[in-house]
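Problem: given the chain below (242 residues), write out its structure.
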Amino acid sequence: MKKVLSVVLALAMILAVAAPAFATAPAPITDPSKLATGGTVKVDGETTVGTINVTLPGATKLVVNPYGLKYSGTVNGTDLTDKQDQIIFPGQFISSNSTSKLAVFANITGVAAGNAKFATEWIDNTSDHVAGTKYPNNVCLVFQTADATKGATPTEPNWTPVTAVPDEPKTDGTVNTELLVSSRGTTLKVGVLAASTDVADDAETNHLAFRFTGVAEQRPDTPWTDKDKVTASIVFTFTPMV
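Solution.
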């Protein structure tokens, strides 16, 4: 079940320069002796608000398929047939039908179980093993984002294949579209959701797609078992942009 976050965001402060209808206007000044003391005009304030309506996916599943076997089943609501990727995770979406443009931040914390470990280097399964070198059950897991087409129903974008460890994370406020997953969570900007031109129209909903991809060690010293898993927790936060 999708979770809908709906919060009210203060956007601008407007001063009401006219007295409200229920207020009594100051009496006219007709006595010249009252000119120096004048009269008082009360200025009320009003804050206009815009609605933030952001939808996140519920619980999802990540499948590690180290031997590249044909995998069939339903993953994250997508029916798969004979999928042979080593990392199987159909794209998911963050959707926004909001009056404000939003910067999207993610804090991703990976958890490895069994013999599985998070790798910090890309894994080359085509090269021969070097004698005397240990080959653990490594997974080089990459979190990737991409803009998806605006509309009532999101469609998965054409993903850029990931074939190497991503560059160092960007901390200058620009978007990180690829992040290496580890057990140490770091909050970074991963996308931008545009403002909707009509929050009452589902067709004006904007979407940011995300997925996990990567590579796993195909010939570890200890054979893979179904106990060797990697999971992740993603905390998404949002900041209004002007």
